[in-house]
Every structure is written in structure tokens, then in C-alpha cells.
Specification:
The chain is mostly helical. The chain has two helices and no strands.
Length: 161
């Protein structure tokens, strides 16, 4: 014990154990402050949950926008494939017409008959190749139509049905 009667304590602080409880007025202040802190913590927790909910809503909005873009892109791809089928079909018809013209010219004996026959054969081969390309594009179009959209149009799951 030191000369002021505090065991192991400082002269200024005295015995720490001597003040086990704050005075009644101070206790009320502490309880009031603790209540305010608890209320503020609850507000912050609620705000945090609201922020999480907002992020979830924003995430759903982004998902829905992505699904709309995917649907638009799929529709545009289908239109492009349909246009490709038509373009190859028309190209095949044009090759057939050109081949026919070269054959008629060769049969009439106008110009270099062998060259016209060669040109007719090239155009017939071009027509066959364009018909194959048109058929391949048509099969891609039908596969795309059968597959449907890559993601569900139901917001929230992002999984194909």
C-alpha cells in the first residue's frame, strides 16, 4: 500500500476498484448514450439492408437489360441469316442465267465456243456452291430458331428454360 492508501494504484487515480459503479446521474447519462448508439446502429443496419436491396434491384435491371439485348441480337442474327439465304439463292439463279447465256452463245457458234463452254461450266459450279451456301445458312437459321433465346425471359434466374 502506498502513502495515500491505494494498493498498486497511482496517487492521482487512487484505487480503481473503489469506483465500481458510476454515480446514479452518470449512470442515466451512460444508458441514454448507449440507447442512442444502439438506435444509430439499427438505422445503419437497415440502411445497409436497403443498399443491398437497391444493389439487387440494379442487378435485376442489368439482367433484364442484358436479356433484352440478347433477344434483339438474336432477332438481328436471324434476320441476317434469312437475308443471307435469300442472297445466296439469288446468286445461284444469276449464275444459272449466266451459264445459260454462255451455252446459247456457244451453241450459236458466236465467239470462242470453248471459252463460252468453260464459262458456262464455271457459272454452273458457282450456282451449285451458292445453293450449298444457301442451304447451310438455312440450316443455321433453323437451328437458331429451334434453340430460342440463350437466357430465360424471366428476371432473376438467368438460366435457360
Amino acid at each position: 500500500m502506498n502513502k495515500e492508501g491505494a494498493v498498486g494504484g497511482s496517487v492521482m487515480l487512487g484505487d480503481v476498484d473503489s469506483e465500481s459503479r458510476p454515480p446514479p446521474g452518470r449512470r442515466g447519462e451512460i444508458n441514454a448514450r448507449l440507447g442512442a448508439i444502439r438506435a444509430r446502429l439499427e438505422q445503419l443496419r437497415e440502411r445497409g439492408l436497403d443498399a443491398i436491396g437497391s444493389r439487387g434491384e440494379a442487378s435485376n435491371d442489368r439482367l433484364e437489360a442484358a436479356q433484352r439485348h440478347e433477344a434483339e441480337a438474336s432477332a438481328a442474327a436471324a434476320q441476317a441469316l434469312a437475308a443471307t439465304v435469300e442472297a445466296f439463292r439469288r446468286a445461284a439463279e444469276a449464275h444459272e442465267r449466266a451459264a445459260s447465256v454462255h451455252e446459247r452463245i456457244a451453241a450459236a457458234g458466236i465467239g470462242d465456243m470453248r471459252e463460252h463452254e468453260r464459262q458456262a461450266a464455271l457459272h454452273r459450279a458457282g450456282a451449285a456452291a451458292d445453293r450449298e451456301r444457301a442451304e447451310r445458312a438455312r440450316s443455321l437459321l433453323s437451328e437458331a430458331e429451334q434453340a430460342g433465346p440463350a437466357v430465360s425471359d424471366k428476371p432473376g434466374n438467368g438460366v435457360a428454360p
